[in-house]
Amino acid sequence: MSSLDAFALDTLVQLDAASLRRRLAATERRNGVMTRRAGRDLVSFSCNDYLGLSHDPRVIAAATEALARYGTGAGASRLVTGNHPPLIALEKRLAAHKGKEAALVFGSGYLANLGIVSGLVGAGDLILVDALGHSCLFAGAKLSGAETMRFRHNSLAHLATLLDKHRGKAQRAMILTERVFSMDGDRAPLDAILALAEAHDAWVLVDDAHGLGVIEPGTRAPLEMGTLSKTLGSYGGYLCASRPVIDLLTCRARSFIYTTGLPPASAAAALAALDIVEAEPERAARPLALARRFTARLGLPEAQSPIVPIVVGEVETALALSAALEARGFLVVAIRPPTVPPGTARLRIAFSAAHGEAQVDGLAEAVADLRPGVTP
Fold it and tell me: Which Gene3D superfamilies does the UniProt record give (predicted)?
């Protein structure tokens, strides 16, 4: 056995012992919320397709038309020949939706944050990241070479302390946070963060992956990043910002420059979905309303977003509860470290406009039966 295989097998044994090994499960999504696994139909509460638009006939038709006209792939980097018309149209609409001068579409949300952060700051600069920020924010910070510090989750006092102590030693400073936190479902105090940033001449990047179209954004940050793969039911990532910033990142964001452009069908699908988001506000409001119906039935704090965590603590407990819910017909995947901090394994419940009230109530009843005294 090679040393590489020996290393892999030994590490897998350790992951198994800690119940932290990941395995792929074949999952057939049949519409916005119904899935099929291991021969069983399940109601999924683990999908980020918040408006069910990935199966909307209008979105599918737009993707199909682009597929027939432009082919299956972009063919090259966008700076070579991959800057096809659907991408240009999508960027114009995203910028307008966010109230910005321009936008830049990346291959994914992860790639976007890698390129944005490392393209704007570097050695001699300071990055402050919310401790519960997404992995890609930390990856972008590490790639940049800037000094990086975590501030306690949503703690304005800690953020202010770090700015007071370290901002003066850095040439540039950037604050990274999320509008809606992906594993906890709570929101950043963005207005206050922006005020602190202005007082210390720091730039704010807000990751809006889980807020676009389903949470009223309020004040916009200078750097509004998000994804096309959740509310918009497609695939890709983007940044909306001023024209000079977008033009600079077109020249400096390595995860943009050195990768093939987004397929035309993905861009066309996202564009059609954005039309629906803007035209159907009652649909956009439904996921949060359903999440609040769920928290009210279980006596939990009112949901701030379509994401509701049920924190159970130990990994084995979360896996067992997920399996028990699956036996009752609900797919609610357990979230384990390192995605969440040790001791906070949980069920992450995501609500969609495609869910029915009876499905939400059925899940609430099942959770109450299986986990008395649930801890949000």
Answer: Aspartate Aminotransferase, domain 1, Type I PLP-dependent aspartate aminotransferase-like (Major domain)
Report, at the CATH architecture level, how domain 25-54+281-370 is classified: Alpha-Beta Complex (3.90)
92 is catalytic: no
The answer to whether residue 154 is catalytic is: no
Q: Within 13 Å, how many C-alpha atoms sit on residue 363's CB side? A: 28
Q: Which of 97, 200, 210, 355 is catalytic?
A: 210
**DSSP letter, residue 126:** E
Q: Is 100 a catalytic residue?
A: no
Structure token pair of residue 166: 């370290």
Active site residue 326: no
Domain layout of the chain by residue ranges: 25-54+281-370, 74-262
In CATH, what class is 74-262? alpha beta
| Catalytic residue, candidates 49, 125, 130, 207 | 207
Annotation marks residue 134 as catalytic: yes
Q: Is 207 one of the catalytic residues?
A: yes
Q: Do the Cβ atoms of 349 and 185 come closer than 8 Å? A: no
From the list 178, 184, 208, 224, the catalytic residue is 178
Instruction: Tell me if 226 sits within 8 A of 237, measured CB to CB.
Output: yes
Averaged pLDDT score across all residues of the chain: 96
Q: Which residues are 118's β-sheet partners? A: none
Structure tokens at 323: 């399996």
Are 25-54+281-370 and 74-262 in the same CATH fold?
no
Indicate whether this model's pTM tops 0.85: yes
| Chain segment 175-212, per-residue pLDDT in tens | 999 999 999 999 999 999 999 999 999 999 999 999 99
Catalytic residue chosen out of the listed positions 98, 100, 200, 230: 230
Residue type, 84: H
Catalytic pick among 182, 234, 266, 322: 182
166 is catalytic: no
